[in-house]
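Reference record:
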Amino acid sequence: MPSDPVPGEARRAVSSLDSRIEAATGHAVDILWAHRDRGVLDAPHNALVDRHRELAQAETGVTFHRTLLNRLSSGEFPIDAALFARIHRAVDQLREAAGARDTAVRRVLAALEPVEAAARTTPAGAAAARLSTADQAALLAIAGGAKLYEHLLTGRLAVTAASGTRIPYAELQRLASGGLVSVDTSHPVHAGQPVSLTDAGRAALLADRRPTTGGTQKALARPGAWPSTPAHRR
């Protein structure tokens, strides 16, 4: 799996659809979440990640109410009418959480269908023309926000990304000529013209970062991460 940066605070909840999402996209779910936040993904992948985040939240709700029910039945509390009332309430809450989870699953499946369809119809050699390391770094920097500026004294043009990365104008021209980025020329260049990825740029970046080996590689588990095997998901 590509060594994409994943925010340290990001910790996804395991869902039953993770492996299917990773097989369709060629990326670990954690990486897709990070790409979504950086603006790298196209519209179908954005929708998929958004629906998966909803599913992760719903899974967390199921886990919370199941844990509460286990605690109530553990023998920690005296067996009386108050306990029975709490157990009945916990069961109702767990049922509602499971219903919300099932709804979230259907929404993820609906968002996953066009992504899987695109993956099936993409020609095997579509990603043969790999981005260079410089192109990849430039596109990632632009994805986080960038502007083209003209130096008032020298008249030289250069792109400055929100991360502080500077991209030579020649590099920008090459990326633009390939249809990977666009420049908003409605703004004066001395004030900064916004530079953004095109749909083709996002697609090229995603395709370039797919694993080339057979199947989806498993990402290394982070300390404290939930187990990813199906047997531990329920």
In short: DSSP finds seven helices and five strands in the chain.
